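User: Here's a chain of 126 residues. Predict its fold as tokens.
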Amino acid sequence: MQFKTEDLRRQWSEADLDPRLRDLVEFVDLDLRRTEEREAVVTSLIRTDNPSSVHAYGRGADIRTRDWPAGLPEGLAHKINVLFVYDPERPEKQCALVHNVGQGTHLHLQVHPRSAWLKSTDEVVG
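Assistant: Prediction complete.
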């Protein structure tokens, strides 16, 4: 796994990130290594500029997608959303989405205190 900045590497090592978020980021990195022979590049973790953002609470991460083949970001987001539920009480919410909020298109990962794996990752990447 790579990090856009050394500060992000430090956050990954030292910050109080939700363990479910760590699972998702590590899943993305493992899946990319296995299927694309590339590493995930983390471009955002903790951000305190918006208190309504999951990033402010160690529950959000962004992964660079600008150099990925067409369709890969959406396909990986779909795979994650089949495996992992964001909040069983709000099924319309998802753990992975591809979007652009002004900083370029990227894979956004997010978790909630009720997030959980729906299936074993071995079923999908085994």
